[in-house]
Automatic annotation (TrEMBL), chain A:
Occurrences of domain Transketolase-like pyrimidine-binding (ranges): 18-182
Listed SMART domains: Transket_pyr
Name recorded for this polypeptide: Transketolase family protein
Pfam families for the chain: Transket_pyr, Transketolase_C
PANTHER family: PYRUVATE DEHYDROGENASE E1 COMPONENT (PTHR43825), TRANSKETOLASE-LIKE PYRIMIDINE-BINDING DOMAIN-CONTAINING PROTEIN (PTHR43825:SF1)
InterPro entries: PDH/Transketolase (IPR051157), Transketolase-like_Pyr-bd (IPR005475), Transketolase_C (IPR033248)
From TrEMBL, chain B:
Name this protein carries in UniProt: Transketolase
Similarity remark: Belongs to the transketolase family.
Alphabetic keyword roster: Thiamine pyrophosphate
Pfam families linked to this entry: Transketolase_N
Cofactor(s) this protein cannot do without: thiamine diphosphate
InterPro entries according to UniProt: Transketolase_N (IPR005474)
All copies of domain Transketolase N-terminal, residue ranges: 24-262
PANTHER family: TRANSKETOLASE N-TERMINAL SECTION-RELATED (PTHR47514)
Length: 338, 287
């Protein structure tokens, strides 16, 4: 017998907390108002990808494709070929792994003006290993013509504009709620970078919700008299030449990412520095070649060595090596690539 | 029209005359055999089987401007089974969409006529497929976009029957059916053939028509080597609105050259002597 006393609305959160802000949804809607070519597609995740704003404001430009990410990527290709600018939405892990071939062949290869928007970056979820996008940056970075953006808190609207400024495929990696200091917002990047803090003892390069964690680590280090710079890298591909300039001016570089240390920000920075002959004491903080599991974000960051304490340790370790006159090339660190 | 003693002068104009279309199909079959015979490679059985589908689509159905391949209001054609290129390129050349002389470079290093069609050839390749199962999604996206924009262009997609084993096909089938994309027409080239043999031995797919109907498609099951039947089915698909259309076109591998007919070989090599015999058989049909 159907329940006629209660409705879904009766089961919503009554804690009185304000709903998460929908900066992305608002930015997409604003962009869509400016450009009639923009359409939004979602694979049964309208609310969590904030596309309900688009759905409600311009339903004729919103497509619910159901739980079919591969088809969504292919349809976006067809739409882009007919003059639309499709934004496709789902969780990061499904947006990349589940439809990789379709993105490669139907969006990246033809270089179409389509945007792939993934939410739940890295291990930032209770939902566990199936929903954790630990390799999405690596996958998207490997595709020719694809650009990869991961804004820090407060930079989402800029990232949407940045994605639209490039007439080609872009992967936009977004978080709804930051696992770090949710109050933090950062100024808009210039040339793919926001310099947040200066310091001559080292450099932290972070992306996404790891930016506030890196900033927290820098504050902890400052309390010990060690001044490190912090920069948010919002354009992960192509990597900004500014990264090179910043790295040349410091003895220690530590990358901080909510992703596997293989193929993401740390890899991209290492590639750049190595090819440009910049020799620094270098370490990647991120998921160290392991799968994770579900949990609250602070718990997971601590457990998997991705919290501010882990960043502080990495900096101290590399400073010691620098002070001992060692370089990465001369003496590989034992725990480097477990 | 093409004749054995008088080399045909392609490109040919569009026509609705089934007898002329039959002549063009025979010409295209000979082109397929010649193209594949050059190196022995290039999907001869599929090409001969699908010649009537390609002929009818390109010469009788698709609204195209050969001089302006990217014309905005053209009908779109997507070959999801992108390896079936001998017949595809032969058709494009015969319709004036690519240079006839290019056919002599088929599958040669550096040629844009790769064994799998790629859009680096030009705008007449509407999407780069070949990774099977993707073409219908792209076609559905095109149909949705053209429909929303009020454009008259229709979208035609050719899938193979073996390709229907890809799950993405059914994702696209569901979306197009739900959205009633009646400017989308799917032609399934049902030649019973995939890499490891007969489709039914690998993964049986019947009842095919019932499956597409269940997904919301108006479905016709026809002889895919009967040009008049293909014409009629395409006309019905164009005229009847409200649903996407699926035409299951039953084709015979190697059709037109008795030496090759019915041999289910996905990646058949074509030795010169057998190619010569097949060409003789096709010539004899003209007499």
């Amino acid at each position: 017998m159907p329940n006629d006393h209660l409705a879904v609305q009766d089961f919503t959160d009554r804690s009185g907390q304000q709903a998460a802000p929908r900066h992305y949804g608002e930015a997409l809607l604003a962009a869509a108002r400016d450009d009639a070519r923009i359409v939004a597609l979602t694979a049964d995740l309208t609310g969590p990808t904030e596309t309900d704003l688009m759905r409600d404001a311009m339903p004729e430009r919103f497509y619910q494709v159901g739980i079919s990410e591969a088809n969504m990527a292919g349809m976006a290709g067809g739409m882009a070929r007919c003059g639309h600018i499709p934004f496709i939405h789902t969780f990061s892990v499904f947006a990349t792994r589940r439809s990789y071939d379709q993105i490669a062949m139907q969006l990246a290869y033809p270089g179409l003006n389509a945007k792939i928007v993934g939410f739940i970056p890295g291990i930032d979820t209770l939902l566990g290993v199936s929903h954790q996008a630990i390799d999405d940056i690596a996958l998207m970075r490997a595709l020719p013509r694809m650009r990869v953006l991961e804004p820090a808190p407060g930079q989402v609207a800029h990232a949407v504009r940045e994605a639209l400024a490039y007439e080609g495929p872009v992967y936009l990696r977004l978080a709804r709620k930051s696992g770090g200091n949710t109050a933090s917002t950062y100024p808009e990047p210039v040339d793919g970078i926001t310099e947040i803090r200066q310091g001559g003892d080292g450099l932290l390069l972070a992306c996404g919700l790891m930016v506030p964690i890196a900033q927290q680590a820098a504050e902890q280090l400052a309390a010990q008299g060690i001044e490190v710079g912090v920069a948010a890298v919002t354009t992960l591909k192509p990597m900004s030449a500014k990264v090179l300039a910043l790295a040349k001016a410091t003895p220690v570089v530590v990358t901080v990412e909510n992703h596997s240390i293989i193929g993401g920000l740390g890899t991209a920075v290492a590639e750049l520095l190595a090819e440009e002959g910049v020799c620094v004491n270098f370490e990647r903080v991120g998921l160290r070649d392991t799968f994770a599991y579900g949990g609250t974000t602070p718990y997971l960051m601590k457990t998997f060595g991705m919290d501010a304490d882990a960043v502080v340790e990495a900096v101290l370790r590399q400073r010691r090596r620098f002070q001992a006159g060692a370089s990465n090339a001369a003496k590989p660190r034992d725990s480097g690539n477990k | 029209m093409p004749h054995a003693s008088q080399p045909p002068r392609a490109p040919f104009p569009a026509t609705r005359d089934p007898a002329v279309l039959a002549d063009i199909a025979r010409y295209l079959r000979k082109q397929v055999v010649r193209m594949v015979a050059r190196t022995g490679q290039g999907y001869v059985q599929q090409g001969l089987g699908a010649a009537d589908i390609f002929t009818t689509l390109y010469f009788s159905e698709l609204n195209l401007k050969p001089q302006e391949p990217a014309w905005e209001d053209r009908d779109r054609f997507i070959l999801s089974t992108a390896h079936n290129t001998a017949i595809f390129y032969a058709t494009l050349a015969a319709r004036g969409l690519i240079d006839l002389a290019l056919l002599d470079t088929y599958c040669e290093d550096g040629s844009p006529l790769e064994i799998n069609a790629s859009e680096r050839l030009g705008p007449m390749i509407e999407a780069t497929c070949g990774s099977l199962g993707q073409g219908l999604s792209v076609g559905a996206g095109m149909a949705a976009a053209l429909g929303r924009a009020g454009r008259p262009g229709r979208v035609y997609v050719v899938l193979g029957d073996g390709e229907l084993q890809e799950g993405q096909v059914w994702e696209a089938a569901m979306a197009a059916g739900n959205w009633r994309l009646d400017n989308l027409c799917l032609v399934i080239d049902a030649n019973d053939m995939q890499v490891e043999g007969h489709v039914d031995q690998v993964q049986a797919n019947e009842p095919l028509a019932a499956k597409w109907e269940a997904f919301g498609w108006r479905t016709q099951d026809i002889d895919g080597n009967d040009i008049a039947a293909i014409q009629a089915a395409l006309r019905r698909a164009r005229d009847e609105r409200g649903q996407p259309h699926c035409i299951i076109a039953r084709t015979l591998a190697g059709k037109g050259a008795p030496t090759l007919e019915g041999i289910l070989g996905h990646n058949l090599r074509l030795p010169a002597d057998i190619a010569a015999r097949a060409l003789d058989e096709l010539d004899m049909q003209e007499a």
